[in-house]
Amino acid sequence: MRAKRLATDARRAALKSQDHFVLAVAERALGLVARELNDIPGSRRHLRRSIAVAEAAGLEVEVARSRLRLADVVSLGGATAAALTQLRTLDVNAKGVDQVRSSVHLALLLQRTGQSDEALARYRRAIPALRRLGLALDEAQALSNRAILNTYRGDYRAAEADLHRAEALAPVAGAAFPVVKVHHNLGFVATCRGNVPEALTWFDRAQSEYAALGLPLAPVLSDRAEALLSVGLTSEGLAAATSAVAELEAGSSAALDLAEAQLMQARAFLLVGETRDAVRSARKARSAFRRQGRKGWSALGDYVLTRAGLALRMPTVAALVNIANQLEEAGWVEPALDLRLAWAIRALNLAKADSVTEAAGQLRIVSRYRRRGVAQIRAYAWHAEALLRHSAGNSAGCRSALRAGFRALEEGHAILGATDLRVHAASRAQDLASLDLRLALADGRPERVLECAERWRARVFRLQRVQPRADRQLEALLEELRHATLAMERAALNEEPTESLLRRRAALEDAVRDQARHVESGRPARSTAVPTSSELRRLLEDRALVEYLALDGRLYAVTLTERRLRLFHLGRLRDIAAEIDSLRFSFSRLAHKRGSVATREAFTNAARHSARTLDEYVFGQLRDELGDRRLVIVPTGRLHHLPWAGLPSCGGKTVSVSPSATLWANVVERRAREKGGRIVLVAGPGMEHAEPEIAELATLYPDAITLVGSAATTREVLRALDGAHIAHVAAHGSFRSDNPQFSSLQLADGQITVFNLERLKATPRLLILSACESGVSGVLPGDELLGLSAAVLSLGTTNLMGSMVTVSDSTTAALMVELHRRLKAGETPPSALAQARQILDQSGEATLLATAGFACFGA
Questions:
Q1: What is the pLDDT of residue 735?
Q2: Entry pTM
Q3: Strand, coil or helix: what is 773?
Q4: List of residues 6+ apart from 831 with CB closer than 8 A
Q5: Strand 554-560 relative to strand 543-551, pairing
Q6: 814 or 725: which leads in pLDDT
Q7: pLDDT digits (tens, 9 = 90+) for 821-834
Q8: How far, in Å, are 403, 487, 844 from residue 603 at the CA level?
Q9: Which of 644, 706, 833, 686 is nearest to 771 (CA)?
Q10: In terms of Cα–Cα distance, which of 444, 459, 617, 622 is closest to 528?
């Protein structure tokens, strides 16, 4: 760092010339540099040398200034009581400039120990004085610190004004004031007021600037974790918090920063369900906060510990109220409300007279926040109000409160533009959705259950699409990622080391993901209305709708036909996942055609057994109701990964699979208005039957845009796909369960990912992917989906055909050709797929995999 070099040079010159004044100033400067680098012992050492030199030379002013800085550093090390005593003494004895500076430092320490009113009063007096004295560096630092205090107090406008004033002072303040801290703090303010895209933009900038200056990344990582956790990105939030803790533990870290990072890590552990780790980290943080005299932060540690143990034991209402009151006094309103609400729900479940009365008292406290605070606070309040109304027998009022709670969350999420942020944020409504569904099932009316399920299900699919703005940086990152992936694949084929290439690809994927999250919606996220059962029945004609839903470990189904609407209780969910995994594994082994005849026969039998078992589970009670009607299936949870055509009840039937009945209805109405357009046929590399398949399809579509071999590049394919009527892509597909947004299709010069498809103005109306697992999506709470199929459906594709399992190239080609013959004859996509299966079955060309692997998503 330049500041360190200058201070070191000054100290060297002072030692040679025996200039005690310069030496004291240089040692103080080195102490401040060490503080910025989180080297607390080094900082203390340099500052004490500065004091010793100044005292020996009788430089009282320099003694006071270095003691002022030392108090700050001592407080960072955790000795807040000693630092407060020293600062109050300096504040009384100092005069002029030094008195103003001591007042500012005292304000900061009061702020850290939760004495916010006195801290704010001191800032209000000191900052104008610093401005009059022309002390730009001190003013910039004071403004930056006051901004954090204003943020915790919920005064975000004042916080941002302070930070922008500090940023404007940076050129005058000089190198001693790292403006990166302003950028970091702007991200923190944006997080607290709910603008996560803006927060992540600032954090990305700050992280890059911290690294360039050689400063520790832990502070920005810890705040980044909070932003990620606020939108349900719990695994990423945990990774960021863990990195912050590791960095702080490895160095001579500030004890205050370490304790805060440990607490953030504990909160992240709690959200991902790692209760033991949450308790361990929270205990470490709480112990540190108590030693440091930070009562409010200690209450946050108590909150995590209480929340973690709530499922096992009930604290007394007195203990709960004590923690919640401490949190609110310290400005931690959201965790206080969350704790009160969670405790009240547990107390209601115990159903004891005393606990129910006490729960009602806590719910009334929470419900007071219905019209104040950020979106999550209002959502907690409406949840509490819904429970109060339900306990009073006011069912209509309860439903109204739940809808209000969801509207509050919608308002908070309206700014989000990136798909993964929208999906994860939508899943945060799960508690409200579960209560609504639980009440609907208890009511027993199918109409109410269907309405409730559709209101909460796959919400992101009903939001207006956000068209990403032109982003050259993102486009460059995607191009770089494509080249890095190709290099890694070539190295693997040549049996060369791939470790460094894997790390490079992972780093580029992180960069692509982070850059894509900067986009904001720029408008309220309006969504399409949920259709009534009457509106759905009008569109169904001779079809039957089967909508599955899960709650408390049980599976339910609502069926809708032209005759009636019915609700079915299907049983426990615990065995269904194992059977789905078994069926998919058997299909995969059969597709590879490996092993002896006996082995293949064993897997065929296993697949048939799993198919019959699953069929009985999901259709057993429904068969009489469904009859021989065409089916519209809306899955839930692991049912999204089920190859439906492989089940006996779906054999020979036209089957559409949709994330929600609302999406299906919108697609049906939109398809009626759609007209023809260009046809695109693409063959990717490495598939023996891809080019012959495309060549035969080209005879059906002589005017189609055909891209095969070296012509099937990512640029040309994306250009052709944009706005196409029908697009058929015969290319290897890859579903990334670790990050569905990087699920991809392999082309001549690399991969097309979801991020590439999202940048199209219009995805193809009908997209057919004759590749392995091209129809698989990642499933989040609320049946929110991520992956290739989910992406194109949310972007406007009417129908997607893709495989739910590994498929065999040789058996797929015949199915695809027959499918297109049916499409040209005027059949709808799901009907064309069903007829193609039947024709191949009759000719003996089909296999179990060819008939069951593919599904038609949409309508």
A1: 82
A2: 0.83
A3: coil
A4: 630, 654, 822
A5: antiparallel
A6: 725
A7: 999 999 999 999 99
A8: 48, 36, 20
A9: 686
A10: 459
